[in-house]
Design goal:
Elements lengths: L8 E4 L22 H7 L7 E4 L6 H15 L17 H8 L3
Parallel strand pairs: 1-2
Helix pairs in contact: 2-3
């Protein structure tokens, strides 16, 4: 993938794709860069930012988080969750909205 200046924000909502400290983790030494690290460091492409789990995560919670991210960018996606701020295009508000119950 070569995307020049059009770098996306990646939401990798699943287990361990952001395990960034494998080289120094005293419990589970991993001698490789995680998916998130590889994406961030890719020359002539990659991503400007990434949301990724550093350890195990659980599917139901992952689903809720991903749906919250989508609802933050596209208000009304979740019918039962109020979104009074309108569409967000900043990462902080998107992350906060994704964590709503």
């Amino acid at each position: 993938m070569t995307n020049g200046n059009l770098l996306p924000v990646v939401m990798s909502i699943n287990c361990q794709t952001g395990w960034f400290d494998g080289e120094t983790d005293e419990f589970d030494h991993r001698e490789f860069e995680s998916f998130a690290e590889q994406f961030l460091r890719k020359e002539n492409g990659g991503t400007v930012g990434i949301f990724a789990a550093t350890r195990n995560s659980y599917s139901g919670f992952n689903d809720a988080l991903a749906k919250g991210f989508i609802d933050s960018v596209f208000p009304g996606f979740l019918q039962d969750v109020p979104n009074n701020s309108g569409a967000n295009n900043r990462l902080g508000p998107i992350l906060n909205h994704g964590k709503l119950p």
